[in-house]
Amino acid sequence: xxxxxxxxxxxxxxxxxxxxxxxxxxxxxxxxxxxxxxxxxxxxxxxxxxxxxxxxxxxxxxxxxxxxxxxxxxxxxx
Length: 78
Hints:
By secondary structure, the protein is an all-alpha fold. The chain has helices spanning 10-21, 25-35, 42-50, 56-66. Helix 2 (25-35) crosses helix 4.
């Protein structure tokens, strides 16, 4: 499946992925913080999503946890 998520916010993307994975945002957050070796605080993940501040390593942990991989596609090949 291919999705163009170029203009999605962190919150929109995580909400979509969580709903399709049959998990909760809280369970995902715990796993992401484990994988990135950060101290888990319940509101930290929610605040990162609300402020569109998710780091790449955190998004990579989201993908790993939910069984996705990131691929980049050049939109204007030379």
